Amino acid sequence: MKLSLLESGIDSLNKGFQSLVEYEKLYYNPNRIHKPKKRFFYLKDSILFIQHGVEILLKCILYKHSPYLIFTNIDSNVKKAFIEKKNRYLNSVFESQLKHKIHTVNYTEAIERVKILPNVVLDKVLEDKLIQLELYRNLIMHSAPHLDENEINNTLDELANKLDSFFYRSIGKSYKTISGYSAFVKNFQAFQNALTTSNKELKARTNKVILDALKCSKMNIGAYEVKRFTDVNCCTQFFNSIFSSDLRFGGDLYNYYCSGNIKIKRVSEELFHLTFDDKALTIEFSLKSIILFLPKLDSPTSPMIYIECTRPKENPPQFLKHITKDYHGIEYVEYLLLENGDYVFGEEEIEDFFNLNKTPRHSEHIRFYSPGLLAFLNVQGLKYNLGSRDFINKCIGLLGKEAEVILRNDIVYLEQNSQ
């Protein structure tokens, strides 16, 4: 058997995340009251394969900088193995007769060595996830594991995206991403040429805007995939990029508020504003995640963006006193923001305000408090499936991870278009 570090690592990562997908089908399916124990075997496999893939690919990075960095000690066996490699014109020291006597660094030491390499940045969030992953792996390998399932899910949440971003930057284009992102990049220009020749300029512009936004936000997704992203800073960069383009985004809220020209902007550490160009209204929310669906590169279907919100914490006391519920049971606060910075709360007070002979300059705001899917966005001019638009209306209160799993399982349906 002959496998390079890169081949072995990518294979293990792919197997690990394939197992995770099977686990999520059983765990996050909202139609299942009793979650089958079979899910634990998928979860176990995902932890073991992902941890192995990460370790091997970390060593691939070390080896790329210097072959000696992957060894625990540069002892006589290591030196002899390199001499044999040179004399026999071997591709690797692991083809030498001493391959059983040379020892590479363990997982934890590989992390520590990668952190001190020039031009390699391992962010703290990813490092913490990798350390936690090793703890799970050790308990699985050496004992009867009794682990907190929610804690494991938090560790694995968006791990694929973070690993893709890290390894793609650190290894280069020879790294094949877990998602189809690397294939997206590789095939992009060929599809752009074909689309332009076929007079499908809007689709070509959309592909470019999305790819540019993915690059600047360090988010990885391929064509014909559904993926959820929870890093709010990355999501912010994605929004900034797509809304600075010449594309126009329409969309709907869960309560059927809709517009043909929507924009989203982060206005504080926690709060985002969703504005309608054709309505004098600002929607305020705290972002939890976005879920992206990218259709095939040559499909007439629009990319779709689902917005998941969470309960905001930035609240002056008067906001909390005026929280109410709509007919769906979703909590919100409706208020007017006056030019001088004052607020007007309450149905009666707002009505009295509009009955004034001369109303001061103001803007209308709604701040949402209940967690769950808030809005759906699409590129104006491209087609989309009406059912995918209505998904948030039929799944009010559904959390983002469950929505991702449902949409991922119905991806064939998402690719269809009727408008």
SSE diagram, text form:
Layout: H1 5-27, H2 38-65, H3 76-88, H4 107-115, H5 124-142, H6 149-156, H7 159-171, H8 181-197, H9 201-217, E1 225-229, H10 232-243, E2 249-253, E3 258-259, E4 262-266, E5 271-276, E6 281-294, E7 304-310, H11 317-321, E8 324-325, E9 331-338, E10 343-345, H12 347-354, E11 362-368, E12 372-379, H13 386-394, H14 400-409, H15 411-415
Parallel strand pairs: 6-11
Antiparallel strand pairs: 1-6, 2-3, 2-12, 4-5, 5-6, 6-7, 7-12, 8-9, 9-10, 9-11
Helix pairs in contact: 1-2, 2-4, 2-5, 2-7, 8-9, 9-10
Structure summary:
It contains 15 helices and twelve strands. By secondary structure, the chain is of the alpha+beta class. Strands 1, 2, 3, 4, 5, 6, 7, 8, 9, 10, 11 and 12 form a twelve-stranded mixed β-sheet that branches.
